[in-house]
Amino acid sequence: MTYSPEQISQIVLKVLKEIETPDVLSLSYDQKLALAKNLNTSSETLQILATDENSDVRWRIARNPNTSSETLQTLATDKDTDVRWGVAQNPNTPVEALKTLATDKDYYVRCCVARNPNTSPETLQTLATDEYSYIRRYVAENPNYKSNKTLELTSEQFNALKELIESGQNPVLKSLL
Predict the structure, then answer these.
(1) pLDDT tens across 74-94, in order?
(2) What value does the mean pLDDT take over residues 123-131?
(3) 49, 67, 85 — which closes off a domain?
(4) What number of helices (H) and strands (E) belong to the chain?
(5) DSSP assignment, residue 77?
(6) CA pair distance 39, 37, nearest whole angstrom
(7) Are 45 and 35 in contact (CB under 8 A)?
(8) What domain range includes position 98?
(9) pTM of this prediction?
(10) Were 62 and a residue from 67, 86, 108, 164 both cysteine, which residue would form a disulfide, CB within 3.0 to 4.6 Å?
(11) 133-141 and 107-115 helices, crossing angle to 10°
């Protein structure tokens, strides 16, 4: 039998109402996964599930937008790389957790920190000197990044750029006028 996403959500909510919160850890693996990824699961239930021994459950919790800041902060130091990766991707991850993850040994975790909209300018500044060019590129694309570098042009380059802007041929440059 197949269920629609709405039916699955209703079933999960019904199960949640019927069980005591500590009993969540005694559910089957599949039930825990379903709760961990369900957008209707409460942050309290996700916090309890975040202590589950299975990293797949913790990874889904790390990615769930209902996961509390406190739980995300805890999961930011998880032993499993995929869990830390999920935390780094979550747009609700607190600034302090992202600061911790910015020094993670794993390349993908740092990439996700560089792309996260909550990453502070200070943390992005640190990542801007990362050894990997993709991380530096994601830092440059992050709207929170404020570069201290200025563009230095020779007078010949300046005049050529000024002429190009004034010609109005490039719509992006034209918008600078």
Answers:
(1) 999 999 999 999 999 999 999
(2) 95
(3) 67
(4) 12, 0
(5) T
(6) 6
(7) yes
(8) 72-146
(9) 0.72
(10) 86
(11) 10
